[in-house]
Design a protein that fits this description.
Structural class: alpha+beta
Mean pLDDT: 92
Oligomer: single chain
Radius of gyration: 16 Å
Number of strands: 7
Strand order of the largest sheet: 1-2-3-4-5-7-6
Order of helices and strands: EHHEEEHEHEE
Length: 187
């Protein structure tokens, strides 16, 4: 995902609704079928995507869409990093943009809003698992928003006829690990 500094058109970032899920599914379907950003190989249905959105919202986490001139052109959300209780203050982000809408500031607007929402909650770390170590656009986007590369998992996925790496990036949310979490934060 390539991002630039100047948006083209009017960007609106807002909470995703059930009515957005067909457009969200269409954006994601492209990556499932043709890309390495996700290791999913069969496109989920609109109902599956709606169920995933509901799970994110049930955790109190953000699931956002970006509209460019009134059309859903990308989506981003945070979800639990891992199910075990000790990970409860760590989230993982996902961001996908319509292929013909990249390079317009959507990724930065979406991910920036998800980070801000998560910082307002009890979460202290955000992880990005980026499919394909050659995904320079996504790596650059995350780096611009404060993520650091913490490692590369080599050849952990096999998709589109080849082995694929994942890049692991991380950023602190709010005070990060400088103070203990508050008991209200999921203790």
């Amino acid at each position: 995902m390539s991002e630039c500094c100047e948006p083209a058109g009017t960007i609106t970032v807002r909470d995703a609704t059930a009515a957005d899920m067909a457009q969200v599914q269409g954006i994601y379907r492209h990556y499932v079928r043709h890309g390495l950003a996700t290791f999913e190989e069969d496109p989920p249905s609109v109902d599956d995507m709606a169920g995933r959105r509901a799970q994110v919202i049930a955790l109190g986490l953000p699931y956002l869409v970006a509209e460019l001139d009134g059309v859903v052109a990308g989506f981003c959300y945070a979800t639990a990093y891992r199910p075990r209780r000790a990970y409860r203050y760590t989230v993982e982000d996902s961001v996908y943009l319509a292929q013909d809408r990249r390079g317009r500031g959507l990724g930065r607007a979406l991910l920036g809003a998800v980070i801000a929402r998560c910082e307002a909650g009890p979460w202290r770390q955000m992880i990005a698992i980026i499919g394909d170590s050659g995904n320079a656009g996504s790596i650059a986007l995350h780096r611009r928003l404060g993520f650091e590369t913490v490692g590369t998992l080599r050849s952990v996925g096999f998709k589109l006829g080849r082995w694929v790496d994942t890049v692991v990036m991380q950023r602190a949310l709010g005070p990060g690990a400088t103070t203990p979490p508050t008991p209200a934060g999921g203790a």
